[in-house]
Write a structure and sequence with these properties.
Elements lengths: L4 E7 L2 E8 L8 E5 L7 H12 L3 E5 L15 H8 L4 H17 L7 E6 L1 H9 L7 E5 L14 H4 L7 E6 L7 H11 L6 E6 L32 H8 L7 H7 L6
Parallel strand pairs: 3-4, 3-5, 5-6, 6-7, 7-8
Antiparallel strand pairs: 1-2, 2-4
Amino acid sequence: MNTGTYITIATPDGPMPTFEASPAGDSKGGVVVVQEAFGVTSHIEDVVRRLADAGWHAVAPAFFHRQGAPVFAYDDIDSVMPIMGQLRGEGITADLTAVLDYLEASGIPSTGTGIVGFCMGGSVTFYAATLRPLGAAVTFYGGGVSKGRLGLPSLTELALRLQTPWLGLYGDLDQGIPISDVEELRQAVALASVPTRSSVTPMPTTASTATTGPLPSIKPQPLMPGTAPSPGSIATWAQEIERPRTGCHHRTRTLSPLLRC
């Protein structure tokens, strides 16, 4: 497996630590992996490495770099909330712009780059899909559907601004994002000018987004704006990457609705 390494990417507010992994040969494109509320954890690093093993140039920027890029244990909710509460829309915009520009400078155009985010990162990923046309955007959860969070507008407000094909993946027992919110968002994105799709998966409260096993095969054809998800695309990969395993996400959401990671 690709080991990966930390680099720094310049932002208006200083260097942003970023975990990066690249394939041994030519890359099929780029993928930005957006962290959970717990930082660039070993799980996020593992997703980056596995993407590289599948042929993608993958990066996971530390959106908490203004706070020292901390990483928290999945049960350390008390430490997470104050840090996440310091995120601001202008900072998120600057960080997304910096990492996408970095990949472009590496020879990967935005239309050849996908972005995937988990929990808090799902909200950031949806917002990223409104900033410029990317290859694909995939959100695993991501709150703020009807009420903005992280200094960003609500997802329903952002829906018409989507410039990137979007796939949203949700769990039916997620108390932080009720099914009614998912349906509201589905109706909002249906009016966007790019292909969109959302899916609700039956999940036990102990399921998380931890991943094991090899990634499905991905063909070198990133999903382009104006096209529907196709076999081998980033979106198709994202549907298959997550396998339930005992861990954080739905468990903590069920026990603590206040945690909107």
